Amino acid sequence: KNEVEQSPQNLTAQEGEFITINCSYSVGISALHWLQQHPGGGIVSLFMLSSGKKKHGRLIATINIQEKHSSLHITASHPRDSAVYICAVKRYTDKLIFGTGTRLQVFP
Amino acid sequence: DVKVTQSSRYLVKRTGEKVFLECVQDMDHENMFWYRQDPGLGLRLIYFSYDVKMKEKGDIPEGYSVSREKKERFSLILESASTNQTSMYLCASSFPSRREKLFFGSGTQLSVL
User: Fold this and answer.
1) Counting CB atoms within 10 angstroms of each CB, which of A62, A67, A78, B57 has the fewest?
2) Is 70 exceeded by the pLDDT of residue A23?
């Protein structure tokens, strides 16, 4: 079993829909990252959180440390949100453990 | 704007060739990482460097070596490329803290024929 599991693996949505991507992990962590990877490869860090909730524009990330679970929400989704979203957890070193990603496609 | 630059976007090499992948960052980060990304497997850590001339093996170091002679540059070396090393290679860097973000390069898609 992977230490970091994401669901769903693939997600399609119509423009304007509210989207939720989930991440569950089985190890103790110091922080959790949400990353975005567009076609072509480059990865951008969206959020790093260790408790509670963070918001940036239409993106919201939450984490429940007791339940070992995090969610990434996208409000009013847009075709430019189409990408792979990756959850990664940082243990008590500088190394990350990555989920396998959720591929999101938003259609007009 | 912070930058992690990988020298090649696409690379095609032959089996047995020695391959160098270069990564340069302009943020004075101590930590630098090399990952490979394969479909269905996510990112896996090959090597990690936490300072000049310091390195640590990641989860899949076999067949790879690294060099960090200067703080800003971290090189990944495939001593004798094999077809199972065909992959997307991503470099990243960060400051050494639990609360620091990771910055990624745009990746090198390596094909070994």
Assistant:
1) A67
2) yes
Enter the tokens of residue B19: 């391959």
Residues 6+ apart with CB under 8 A from B18: B77, B78, B79, B80, B81
In this predicted structure, what is the pLDDT of residue A40? Answer: 76
C-alpha distance from A38 to closest chain B C-alpha (Å)? 10
pLDDT confidence of residue B98: 56
- In DSSP notation, A30-75 reads SEEEEEEE-TTS-EEEEEEESSEEEEETTEEEEEETTTTEEEEEES
Which residues, at least 6 apart from B17, have a Cβ–Cβ distance to it below 8 Å?
Answer: B78, B80, B81, B112
Q: Cα–Cα distance between B110 and B8 in angstroms, integer?
A: 9
- Cβ atoms of B64 and B80 closer than 8 Å: no
| Residue A69: exposure state from Cβ atoms within 10 A (0-12, 13-18, ≥19) | middle
Q: How confident is the model at residue A58 (pLDDT cuts 50, 70, 90)?
A: very high
* Cβ <8 Å between A42 and B106: yes
Residue A38 tokens read as 């567009």
Please, what is the end-to-end C-alpha distance for chain B in angstroms? 37
Given this model, what pLDDT does residue B13 score?
96
- In this predicted structure, the answer to whether residue A1 has a pLDDT above a threshold of 80 is no
**Partner-chain contact B90 A43, CB within 8 Å:** yes
Answer whether B48 sits within 8 Å of A96, measured CB to CB: no
